[in-house]
Amino acid sequence: MRFIKLLYILVLLSVSAPVSARTKTGTRQITGKITDKTTGLPIVGATVSIPDLKIGTSTDEDGIYALKQLPKGEYLMQVTMIGYASVTKVVDLGNTYSVDFKLSASNYELSDVIVTSLGNTTTRRQATIPITVVTHKMILEGVANTAIDLVASQPGVNETTEGSGTTKPQINGLGFDRVLVLMDGVPQEDFQWGDDHGILIDPYAVHDAEVIRGPASLQYGASAEAGVISFKSAPLLESGTVVGSVLTEYHTNNGYLGTSLNLAGNHNGFVWGLQVSGEEAHSYSNPKDGYVWGTAWNQVNARLVLGINRSWGYSRLTFSALHRRIELPDGNRDSTGRFMFDFPQNGKVYPTRSDFLSYNATTASDKILGEYQAWWQNSLNVGKGKLGLDLGFTRSVHHDIDTGTVGSGNLLVNDIPYSLKYQIGSDSSGLKLSTGINGIYEFQNNGAAPPPPYVPDYEIPNYTNFELGAYAILEKKFKNLTLSGGLRFDRTDFVGDPMSLNSAGNIVPTGNPGSAVQFSAFNNTYSGLSGSIGASYQLPNNNYVKLNVSKSYRAPAINELTSNGLNIGSNLVDLGNIHLKAEQGYQVDLAYGYDGNDLSVEADGFYNHISNFIFANRTDSLSGGFPIYQYLSTNTTIITGVSGFLNIHPVAAKWLEIDNRFTYIYSHIPNASDSTQHLPYIPAPHLHSDIKLRLNDGHNSILRGIYFKFGLQHDWTQNNVYSAFYTELPSAQYTIFNAGLGASIVNPKTGKTVCAIYVNCTNLTNVAYADHLNLAQYFLAYNGNPVTVTQQNQGIYNMGRNISFKLVFTFGNSGSKNNSSHNSGDTTN
Length: 829
Fold this sequence. Notes:
The strands form nine sheets. This protein has a 22-stranded antiparallel barrel. A five-stranded mixed β-sheet has the order 10-16-17-14-15. With 829 residues, it is mostly beta strands. The protein is built from four helices and 49 strands.
């Protein structure tokens, strides 16, 4: 950490002197006016941003915007505004100093939105593979306990859960190490392979997100076999601005309390941002289980960004620290189905109402988790291109707690992610090349054993892992056709240390009399090629098609290779397989879409053929009453599916929007028995449908942007399960209804938003249901003895009715004359 701070200071000192004189006379800025295409009137509060530079501003009462302290080069600009279709344009900041935009009225804001996670910045329609964008407005209007909740209802995306605070993402039916999760470009290596601890990203730190569905993201490497979820913090501000916001939130079901403070500013190109938040929740409830014992959790997070914008590019340093304490349910009950303590607490056998409503997450079997990051990002103008250099350090902490702060399992993973990227191209030629190297160096150590009488648990050995990848992506744009393709080579080197244990479970030198080998030394090397070639074509009348063919590669994860012990949070014993081979996949994606004045639709179909597919297979053996799972691989696995959306936004009825999102995924293992012919934990087919009604803003009204929405989620039966030894159970279909409303309180004299209000009710009719990817439905014990769940209703169900209240207060000064009242609490403008 000290080395990174020192290096950053040296860079600032080295560039500040020669650059300061140059920027006084050579500072680039771009200005312009945003107007309504039909009326010609200025649009107040439109958001103008350059996503590649991660900066933005908003228009004043005259529709004027200004972005200052900009580097030279070609960049995609984006203009968005509620009630208008977004607009994008490539600008050359070396030769262009003023650009005006005319916006067309539309309730659908995603028609031409920019995406940056593919390596080559482009728009959603021109991207050659399916991409989903989750905007800041969608996040503000939604309900989430975790960062993964923010994207889980999008087409092709699902989440596995073990309670409201523990979630992991799925894309096209694949999850865990096959989905790469990023936060501002930092790979989240926080025990991604486990299902008993969620992604350690603060949902309040997320401003928006992009989801790449499929393995075509060559920029990120083998961990993106299923796709990429790229979370992003708020864009930095224009010069002369200091703004902030306070968000507070409450959920009725699990008593969720969330608070977040955001401050950001820009002084002559020196940019900074601070975000601090805290969240806590007690046990959640549902009509079937009542309050579910062991589902409380709490979390705190702090995030600081420091950086400089200059004509040569930018440099930014981000520090983040997150601490989470979370209980995990194990389904322990008595013969009547009443939840019990695993061990008597203060003479009590059963939790009382005060226990269920306690925010103390230390009573049930629980975990202490930590994620600490430093991330240095740089973009430098080199010749006619841009050179990106990113370097980071992350530390992930995992303690499985016996009592208090004593951990039976203690893992400490350190990662050094790195990336060097060069990009060159021009809008005039339509040709763009991106090439680079990236990877990660990881080293993991088991922490000290707990004192007697506690028994230590060593699931994986001490190891190092070095990943290196090199790639090249070429894109060519014609008038209506975009072609994109590339290749990538990855190499992964695992080196594991031996470990032997004595009869008490403590580490002793290998070969000690009476000791048992827990892990053998190993040195495994994997390498492989991945590639992608695709095209998108803009057909007449706002139709478009996409076709992409890709090859994927993924080395086995450390848990798949070496696991040997009780996975405490998942109530099972994992056994690794050091002889596993790397996965190799071939996928075809075909999509059709239409973006019209009254509706937008897209349907995406995919076919994925994977060899050496790795998964945990339940055996017919038990250890201490817990089932034993052995990692193995199949010769061939086939996953197919279709997902998409239908958004109806009539021009003649600007007050109405109907949004539908659907997902269907099917898996097949050829030549397998009836009970093993499907992959475990493939999501059930499901549909999300929402109707939103907007009220017109009254002249000088205090309440503006008023909307009402009503929706449903329907999940069909999932009978295509891996049923051997009750590994997986068929799930019943269910329908839950949701409703919500929102508005902004505005100062009628200045038009500035003072406060935004959001109220949502999920599971309106309080239905008792178990989602197919709810892993807690397999947790059951009687008087502390694990029991195999043979029927879905034996396990733990999902959350019942929940009403959430969210308030966002904004403050500060803006470089523009006026802040918009229509941004609904968005403080980045």
